[in-house]
Amino acid sequence: MPMRIIVNADDLGISGPVNEAIFQGLQRGTITSATLLSNGPAVKAATQELHLFPNCSFGVHLNLTEFEPLCPGSDAGLASILDQNRCFNGNSIREVRIGASMLRAIFREWCCQIENLIRLGVEPSHLDAHHHVHTIPQLLPVLAALRRRYKINRVRISRNMYDDSERPGRLLLAEKRLFNAALRTMGFQTTRIFTDLVTFVKLCAARPPRPASVELMTHPGSMPRDEEANLLESDWPGRLAYAATLVSYNSL
């Protein structure tokens, strides 16, 4: 069986230029999936184009790090991760104590983000998060509750493929394995590998990894011309020395 590779573009809805770059990749077929930032400034414009790509999957890019929350009355529960303008305050979610009241507030906020996309016509295929905040272990109960409420049964795992220059220590890798196993135990369907496009091509062009399902993260339009952009405009699957099929999350 050929390796199945999902190429997901993060941050759809964050800006017009990012939307345009992602849609160009979807049109070329080098991107097969995208996740929408429900509280992004350009999300409504993005949702109006999704019908042009019926073979692609569109998920929810859950957010706790940028722009304003969508849930009315969320300030009290989320106060410690909001700035003076009532916007999410960057990486502060990783710096505060996540107690029961905050978990309830995050659940309500993420429900609002999912429901906003559903109102805009999106049928969410999977979940991931802006700056990977869904992989904070304390938020596993929130993910479980979202799966039950919305029947969204696919989720991005914690990254588990690195090149030597950025490989985490053994303890963090072990924690990631436990987190990913917990997702599957909760009933989520996942790929077996998650990494970025550049790393995958660098490490796996000549020899396939043992697992047969991979998600590759991309960020079209977010950076000046870089190696990822060059790959997305090339026949990078043709550089693989083995059979591989680009699929969407709907095929997982």
Give structural notes.
The chain has 252 residues and is α/β, with parallel strands linked by helices. It has a single domain (3-251), classed as Alpha-Beta Barrel (TIM Barrel), CATH 3.20.20.370. The chain has 8 helices and 7 strands; from the N terminus they run βαβαβααβααβαβαβ. Strands 1, 2, 3, 4, 5, 6 and 7 form a 7-stranded parallel β-sheet that branches. Helix 2 (43-47) links the parallel strand 2 (33-36) and strand 3. Helix 4 (100-119) packs parallel to helix 5 (140-150). The two termini are 14 Å apart. The model has no long low-confidence stretch (mean pLDDT 96).
Keywords:
seven-stranded parallel sheet, TIM Barrel, 33% helix, globular
Sequence-ordered SSE layout with sheet pairings:
Elements: E1 3-12, H1 16-28, E2 33-36, H2 43-47, E3 57-62, H3 75-78, H4 100-119, E4 127-129, H5 140-150, H6 170-185, E5 193-196, H7 197-204, E6 213-218, H8 227-232, E7 244-247
Parallel strand pairs: 1-2, 1-6, 1-7, 2-3, 3-4, 5-6
**How far from one another are the termini?**
14 Å
Total of domains: 1
* Main beta sheet strand tally, sense and closure: 7 strands, parallel
Strand content: 5-15%
State the gist of this model.
By secondary structure, the chain is α/β, with parallel strands linked by helices. Helix content is 33%, strand content 15%.
